[in-house]
Amino acid sequence: MMKKVLAMLLASAMVVSMTACGGNSNSDTTEPAAEDSSTEAPAEGEEPAGDAEAAAPSGETYKVALLLNGTLGDKSFYDSANEGLTRLRDELGADVFDFKVEQMGGTAADESKWEPTLLDYCDSGEYDVIIMGTWQMADPLAKAADQYPDQKFMFFDEQFDFEGNGNPQNIYNILYKQNEVSYLVGAAAAMMTTDETIEGIDPSTKKIGFLGGMDNAVINDFLKGYEQGAKDIDPEIEVQVSWVGDFVDSTKGKDLALAQYQNGVDVGYNVAGNAGLGQIEAAGDTNLYAFGVDSDQAALLPDYAKNIPTSALKNVGNSLYRAINLDLEGKLTYGTTEVLGFAEGGVELVKDAHYEEMLPENIRTTLDELEQKIIDGEIVVDTAIER
What we know:
Elements: H1 2-12, H2 52-55, E1 62-68, H3 77-92, E2 97-103, H4 114-124, E3 129-133, H5 138-147, E4 152-156, E5 171-176, H6 178-192, E6 207-212, H7 217-233, E7 238-243, H8 250-262, E8 267-271, H9 277-286, E9 289-293, H10 297-300, E10 311-314, H11 316-328, E11 336-340, E12 347-349, H12 353-358, H13 361-376
Parallel strand pairs: 1-2, 1-3, 3-4, 4-5, 5-11, 6-7, 6-8, 8-9, 9-10
Antiparallel strand pairs: 10-12
């Protein structure tokens, strides 16, 4: 049954996880502006920030195009982006805000149509903002921003090189402090691997694992935080790192994870898109543990939930919800990059009833304290990205 569930999820997840798509560029990045700091991305069900409906142009609909270099159904970033825009439309009404999703496909065969599709949307002049993400869209975006200076763009989960592209003033760039949430995952893994009360744990080994998709800046940012969180709990913790080489090959991901588990690792962390699902299957086969990423993977994979203590989220949907509300209010500054962490609702560790069941109270209490220290600036988390 477990393999059947995994196969179904893989069948729907035809594209690379947006988390796993980071590259590296050399742009100047700013922290969120002080005037925007109060407009945090709300959790589902909360009221939208500010009076966005009142700020919408009278008689006009604010229209967005969300261009995905992939497809919906990834149970991750693409779906998160769509959810955030859907929630905003439901709250404001389609006469105030509406959007269209263009699923361009995520395979090598699809890549040749990404830039022409983007330029077609720009040429239409129909959309107030065109949204896209990942390092693969950075070059097409730079060309579009230059050719269409009056078109506004939002670009997420990859650092846009403003200086290297003539400092365009029509792009708003969103990054996430994945290192912050990964710090908590590393701390949790370190505490778990030495806790003899948790089933299957061998407290004498002090080994935890990390499965990365590709060796790039964003994935290394996850790794930096994870390693620091673990070492701050116990400097003797050993972090075993394996790289799949892509974000798709779940079979290879499983083989690498099994090798780690067989080498004494009892808690892992998958940051490898669809390939990371192999680690979750490996955890199920060995009755050990794997932290999820991007989505609440314990909820998405109920047959593996007992192996997934919790998941680290980058809240793409919340960040787009927040940005569009700010734009409707005339408060969003284009030509800049914002980096969203715990304080802004850009990242999150799932803390629900399953989490409470999986992790002992002392671990949960420590994680709450560490998160607050990160928010307060008492803990500065290492990063692989210039910010």
